[in-house]
Design goal:
Immunoglobulin-like; mainly beta; globular
Length: about 180
C-alpha cells in the first residue's frame, strides 16, 4: 500500500516541525503523525544524536544562570594538565589544568578552549573513560576562552584522571582531557 499524506489540517506544518526540532525542552525521541491508513514518521532523533543536532541559533548563548568565571589567585601552582578532545561528534579543543592556591583547587580552561554547540555543558571529573556524575560541579560560563572554576571541597580532583565537559541534558561526554 503506497504511503498517503494526510490533509494539512491533520499534520504539523514545516514551521511547527522546525519549532519542535529547535525546542530544547521538547522530547526528542520521536514525532509521529498518524491518520487512518497512512503514517508520516519523523525519526532518528535519539540520545546518540541529540547533542549533535543543534543550530547556532538554538545554543548561541550559554544559560543566563551560568556562573561567572573567577580569576585564578596569584601564586597558584599547576598540579596536573591535559588537552581536550571531542566526543560524540563534538569538537572540544584547548587545554585544561588543575591548579591550587590558598588551600583551594581550581579547574582552569586555557585561552584556546573551545566547545561547539551543545546543550547544558558542565565541568566534572572521571577516570578511564567513565564520568562520575557526583563531580559535575558547574555550568560553563562561556563556550570559548580562558575560564577559572573553583572545585568544591566535596570533590577531590586527585582521585580522577580526566576532566570532562559533560552534556547533562543527555548524559553524554562532549569532550575529555586526560590529566598528566
Amino acid at each position: 500500500m503506497p504511503l498517503e499524506f494526510a490533509p494539512t489540517s491533520d499534520v504539523y506544518s514545516s514551521g511547527e516541525i522546525a519549532g519542535v526540532l529547535g525546542d530544547p525542552t521538547h522530547p526528542r525521541e520521536r514525532v509521529m503523525l498518524l491518520r487512518t491508513g497512512s503514517i508520516v514518521l519523523l525519526a532518528g532523533l535519539t540520545q546518540m544524536t541529540a547533542c549533535s543536532g543543534y543550530s547556532e541559533e538554538s545554543t548561541a548563548d550559554i544559560s543566563a544562570d551560568a556562573p561567572s568565571a573567577l580569576q585564578l589567585p596569584e601564586g597558584a601552582s599547576t598540579l596536573r594538565s591535559g588537552t581536550f578532545s571531542g566526543r560524540n561528534d563534538h569538537v572540544v579543543t584547548g587545554g585544561v589544568r588543575i591548579a591550587s592556591a590558598g588551600g583551594k583547587t581550581f579547574v582552569v580552561l586555557d585561552g584556546s578552549f573551545s566547545l561547539d554547540n551543545a546543550p547544558d555543558p558542565r565541568v566534572g571529573f572521571g577516570s578511564d573513560g567513565s564520568f562520575d556524575e557526583e563531580t559535575s560541579f558547574t555550568e560553563l560560563a562561556s563556550k570559548t576562552g580562558e575560564q577559572v572554576y573553583l572545585v568544591p571541597s566535596s570533590v577531590d580532583p586527585s582521585a580522577y584522571s580526566e576532566v570532562y565537559i559533560w552534556c547533562a541534558e543527555f548524559s553524554v561526554p562532549l569532550g575529555i582531557a586526560e590529566l598528566e
